[in-house]
Amino acid sequence: MKLSLLVGGPPSSGPLVEAHRKLRAPHAVAVLMAGALAVALVPLIPGVSARLEVTLHDTAWAMGVFAIVSLAAAVVFWRRGATPAYWRLCVLETWTTALTLLSLVWASGNPLSPFWLLLVCLCLTMAVDPSGRVSEGLAFVVAPQVLALLFLLEGEPAKAALSAVIGGVVVVAATVLRGLFVGLTEARNERDRLRAELAELRLREERHRISRDLHDGLGTELASLTWTARTLHQRLEGSPMQGDVGQLLERLRSGMDELRTVVWALRAPARPWEDVVARLAQRCRELGGDRDVVVEASAADPRVEFDGQVALDLVRAVQELVHNAARHAQPRRIRVTLRCEPDGIRFLVEDDGRGLAEGALERSEGGLKNFRARVESAGGTARVESSSQGTRVSAWLPTPTFRPNMSMQ
């Protein structure tokens, strides 16, 4: 019988709607109707009618009204979902339930009628529901006072006073229970928040540890190998093997650059937009060599920051394009345009080189193929256009951690 609404606008999705989906499931509605029918037929049990002091007419009328409103709410939910009309019916159902139960107390003429028990259960259920709305809670405050007023108008002040006291006790008990439940919920939420912060701190420490190990261990080894390869390359000047050593030296330098980028991404759980752009511009100019590399960037919110992995995906994707253009297209100029939007990052890399040969994209075993695979694995999209005047590669990467960087305000 308990239906609830969030304070504020009626929700159309979320946990509350899912709870109502279960509540309005056919089997749940059948159980509710069976309960209403059982209450309606209680007076037919020998001896019960005299004890409850109600007739079959009284219970059938009360449960009939309740069943009509509940079925109407269920049908609206089945056909239209969690619409504003449905939530209004929910409020009406709560009020109808409270009033029909108290109408049975009134019909019995006994302010200590057992039907109060059903009302108490309904009120306490609402008290422990965090989504309860004031418009529904008022039903359990106003309805008992209406009953007390009716007894008073009938010239029975004792019954009126008893009904008012019982109603007041129910409201006080529900209020105390509500306070305890809210306090328990807040404590549980605080516990979950602290656990999440602890997990994030542990993850951050692990990222720092890995970045230190990579920098101090693998980074040192690669730097030593690079120095050795450079020395060997100089000593082999004029030798046929100098070219092979030169290629090895270039691969070692690329490995060092990649390692620095990974360490950069690992050292911070989130990277501000300005930091990402600065890192990307530096790598593009390094990879462009003596080409004129221009990097332009704009953001819908300059305070935005990204998860380290998202920043790494972006840097790797763009640097792959710049490296590919500088190595194969023989351009004079490379332009990189970045635009950060709430749904992701759109970027464009274009050059004025010789363009791609026919079928080059399909035959590619690296370069653009790697770029496409990296973008698609991150949930993004890419498009390549090429002609004799140059190549344009545009792409979009989702940014699930798009958020204002409050520390930069």
Mean of residue pLDDT values: 79
Number of strands: 8
Largest sheet strand order: 2-4-5-7-6
Biggest sheet, open or closed, and with what strands and sense?
5 strands, mixed
How many H/I helical runs?
A: 14
Please identify the structural class as seen in this structure: alpha+beta
Dominant shape: elongated
Helix content: 55-70%
Radius of gyration: 36 Å
**Which residues sit in consecutive blocks of at least 5 with pLDDT less than 50?**
1-9, 404-409
Domain Histidine kinase: 213-401
EC number: 2.7.13.3
Pfam families: HATPase_c, HisKA_3
Keywords: ATP-binding, Coiled coil, Kinase, Membrane, Nucleotide-binding, Phosphoprotein, Transferase, Transmembrane, Transmembrane helix, Two-component regulatory system
Report what the structure shows.
Helix content is 66%, strand content 12%. It is an alpha+beta fold and 409 residues long. Among the domains are: 15-155, no CATH class; 269-409, Histidine kinase-like ATPase, C-terminal domain (Heat Shock Protein 90, 2-Layer Sandwich). Strand 4 (333-341) and strand 5 (344-351) form a beta hairpin. Residues 1-9 and 404-409 have low confidence and may be disordered. One of its GO terms (molecular function) is kinase activity.
